[in-house]
Design a protein that fits this description.
There is one protein chain. The protein has 350 residues and is of the alpha+beta class. A 4-stranded antiparallel sheet has the order 2-3-1-4. Helix 7 packs antiparallel against helix 8. The radius of gyration is 26 Å and the shape is elongated.
């Protein structure tokens, strides 16, 4: 999909635009030309953005011990059975239950039969069927038999099956999830530093990516979203998507460094101008993605809705960080760190 998107943008779009020109469609308004926007002082206002981001991230970290103390959760995050290991029971009833009905009628029966609190049991509907998946911590054979007996006594059941989820697999999944984000961040840091010939571009981009990941992490901690396979997919999607707008802004900064002489134009003005010039592009691109994910959230099943909700927060956080965080962060690295390096060099020379 990514390769086809690049091909269509670089080849097909160019052919179509040339065809319109040859057909006589030459009015600049048809090609999205807009008057030059007034540059805002993003660098100056970035201090407020840094404070806001810090508060959001701190809120997510504060909720970790709160969640662990909560008897309904018992862990720092609401880990699914894929992460924690446990038992999955698939029960086919004689009629279809909504998730709310299942939590009200079925959950208490299972909880009492196996002697586990409601908060440790997860229910999930199987789309277009009467089946419900009941996920619990690891159950013994007696507990599984007790759950089946209790359900058959209270409801009409057509089919009942159980499956154990290995805790070994779940621990490997946790490690791989963390490792995948770290490896992706390091590779992007190396690529951006090489491509832009300035490690500060790469460092600020990766810090902004970690900022976006922490935004979504806060959502999972505060909203008690289920942390499972979709959590890994969501984090990697956000890391891959969020870097796009950042690279566009960095590329414009690099171009303007050649056009606008830093000796005559303050570096802060170059950064502000670059963000302003790419502002509309960033908003339009991310808005189209947000609308698509919003529709997915509206029409999707519960598992997809959690994934879509996290993606929407990630898209918003990525847009915000690309515009308000990355450029000013590079500016501070370029100015503050350079001053410190010069001061150390002067002191060493003395």
């Amino acid at each position: 999909g990514i390769l086809l998107s690049m091909f269509s943008a670089l080849v097909i779009t160019k052919l179509l635009l040339n065809a319109f020109i040859q057909l006589g469609v030459t009015n600049p308004k048809f090609y999205g030309t807009i008057p030059e926007r007034k540059s805002h002082d993003y660098v100056k206002n970035s201090k407020f953005c840094f404070i806001f981001s810090a508060l959001v991230i701190i809120a997510g970290l504060v909720f970790l011990p709160i969640n662990k103390a909560n008897t309904n959760i018992g862990h720092v995050l609401n880990f699914s059975m894929e992460f924690m290991g446990g038992t999955s029971m698939t029960v086919e009833f004689d009629k279809q239950y909504t998730l709310a009905e299942a939590e009200q009628e079925i959950l208490p029966v299972v909880s009492e039969a196996i002697g586990i609190s409601d908060g440790e049991i997860q229910l999930q509907n199987v789309q277009d069927s009467n089946s419900i998946i009941i996920k619990t911590p690891q159950l013994s054979l007696d507990q599984r038999n007790a759950a089946e007996s209790a359900l058959r006594e209270a409801f009409t059941i057509n089919d009942f099956s159980t499956e154990n989820i290995s805790s070994t697999v779940s621990s490997e999944m946790q490690r791989d999830a963390i490792l995948s984000v770290i490896v992706a961040s390091i590779l992007m840091l190396i690529y951006i530093a090489f491509r832009f010939k300035d490690v500060r571009f790469g460092a600020s981009a990766v810090l902004a990516l970690l900022h976006d990941v922490m935004f979504v992490f806060t959502l999972y901690a505060v909203a008690h979203l289920s942390v499972g396979n979709t959590f890994i997919a969501c984090m990697l999607t956000i890391v891959g998507y969020s870097i796009n707008a950042t690279i566009i802004i960095f590329d414009r900064i690099r171009e303007n460094l050649k056009i606008m002489d830093p000796k005559k134009t303050p570096l802060k003005d170059i950064v502000n101008t670059s963000i302003t010039q790419t502002f509309t592009r960033s908003i339009y691109t991310n808005l189209t993605t947000f609308v698509m994910v919003l529709v997915l959230y509206i029409v999707g099943v519960s598992a997809i809705q959690e994934f879509a909700l996290a993606l929407m927060v990630g898209v918003l956080g990525g847009t915000y960080s690309s515009i308000c965080i990355t450029g000013p962060l590079w500016y501070y690295m370029r100015t503050k760190l350079t001053k410190k390096e010069k001061a150390k060099a002067a002191q060493a020379a003395k």
